[in-house]
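Structure representation:
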Amino acid sequence: MGLLLVVAVASALASSYKAAVLEYSPVFELTRDPLAPSQALKQMLGNLEQYQLYAAQAAEKGAQIIVFPEDGLTGSYFPTRAFISPFSLTIPSDFYLKDSQVLYGFLLRISLTC
């Protein structure tokens, strides 16, 4: 469940725009053991689905930019590094993502890209 707030913002450097701020409690599991990467991805995609619904609502209200909460896709229960690992992806410095590639972790970024 979330709360969507859309406001008009004026800036001395640019023309005004409408911004939406989402207060959202992500769905995540409190577990004794870290999730498997496939479970972590499923959890993130579930939260991403909610983000997309809120983004559509914000757009209908004229928002041009949306602020999402920190840890809104993953949840915030990471008592050790092992718990955050399934949500992470190491990207080599020479990595190049081609348009046709969909890799674990990038599925979310591709889905959120305008």
In short: The chain has one domain: 2-88. The helical segments are 37-60, 81-84, 106-112. Residues 2-88 form one domain.
